[in-house]
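Tokens for RBR-type E3 ubiquitin transferase. Go.
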Amino acid sequence: MGKEETNRFPSLDSFYFSGKQNISDVIDLSDEDDDIKIINFIPNNTYFGTRKRNNNFEKGECSYSKGRRFVCKICLDTKTTRDAFYISGCNHAYCSDCVAKHIRSKLDDNIINIRCPFFLCKSGTLEAGVCRSILPTEDFKRWDKAVCEVLFNIREKFYCPFVDCSALLINDGTEAVKNLECPNCNRMLCGLCKIRSHEGFGCSEFKKLKRDDKGKDVILANIAEDMRWRQCPKCSDYVAKSGGCNIMTC
């Protein structure tokens, strides 16, 4: 076959999948030549079907868990569920940072019986062992030490009788002290009956007084002592001697 036959075929680069073409445009189908000419070609880039998906997921991550968020009721910030700390004994959850700060503030007030931060919650409690992962090492050791002292080394413990304080107080058992000062609120209380100070009254006598009269009677008792008044053993009224004998009739 001569040069004329080779020139019948255009270059493959000129029609490389440029569009639909008739086979007659590529191969001469005339009867002049009975030889069969076969063209072998391999496309440079051919994709069959869809492209291969590239699924690059990091191990241990879940797209569903990443999207779950909640609002901490203490700091009011939006947090992920990974930052949530659930209180034992109740269904309340706060961010770990706020729970750690809540524990630290209670420890600063000498309170080791720490409850749920929600003021109306009566069942939620916090324990040192459970909270260890969210606490700084110093706070955990301080809390753990205080709990151990209460459980093993302290003969008697009680709490400040004032509702707005309730700090843990420790009686080392060395001596019975009636007048004590709370180191947290700096108010006076009775170390014998574990209630607020009742100077001028014995413990049993003070407990017999009406609740509304206790404060007034303490003030009156202090005045009576300064003025040297005497109290009637029958009606408990105070009297002052201005003259006459020492006999008093109620």
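The first strand starts at residue 69 and ends at 71.
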